[in-house]
Amino acid sequence: MAGKLTAISHDREAFRAFYRTHVEAVQRFIARRVDDPYLAADLTADVFLAAISSAATYRGSGAGELAWLYGVARNVVATDRRRRYLERSAVGRIAGRRLLEPDDLVRLEERIDAEARSRELYAAMDALVEGERAVLELVALDGLSVAEAARALGIRPVAARVRLHRARKQLRDQLTPFVAANPSLTEA
């Protein structure tokens, strides 16, 4: 029997026969434990998915396929109950509480607005030539000097200064309002 059962993990026909033989028994097992028909259908499917996953390691206990499948079903139902309990517990802890105060909402909106500007900057930076972008990131974002950025990139400091100048100019042309609002970009 162990060979027949392990076949369901890789043989579609073996699984179909196994499923047809045991689906009603599994549905009855699940229906005795849950009262929601949609949940019962989901758990029945989960039982057979778990059976497929664990069939390859089945060694046989002499109890039979159905007993083994009931053990799988019992584990699936128990796991679902634990998950539902944890969900109810979490909902219970926050029920009746307001998660965000009005001031929190204002701060979140400000952060979202600030990040929108950052996304605009990164989109503009994506349009830069790779070498120019690399120097700009090292200097403006990582805080390296132009000479340090040049060493990190393996180029001469003069080349790094030219690339940085080009990158700043292109960004300035694309993002004049954003750069004006963020002077640290022009300082870099």
Automatic annotation (TrEMBL):
InterPro entries in the record: RNA_pol_sigma-70-like, RNA_pol_sigma-70_dom, RNA_pol_sigma70_r2, RNA_pol_sigma70_r4_t2, RNA_pol_sigma_r2, RNA_pol_sigma_r3/r4-like, WH-like_DNA-bd_sf
Keywords: Sigma factor, Transcription, Transcription regulation
Annotated RNA polymerase sigma factor 70 region 4 type domain residues: 119-171
UniProt keyword Iron present: no
Domain called RNA polymerase sigma-70 region: residue spans: 18-84
The keyword Transcription belongs to this UniProt entry's keyword annotation: yes
Coiled-coil parts of chain: none
A Pfam family this chain is assigned to: Sigma70_r2
Listed PANTHER family: RNA POLYMERASE ECF-TYPE SIGMA FACTO (PTHR43133), RNA POLYMERASE SIGMA FACTOR RFAY-RELATED (PTHR43133:SF25)
Family according to the record: Belongs to the sigma-70 factor family. ECF subfamily.
Descriptive protein name: RNA polymerase sigma factor
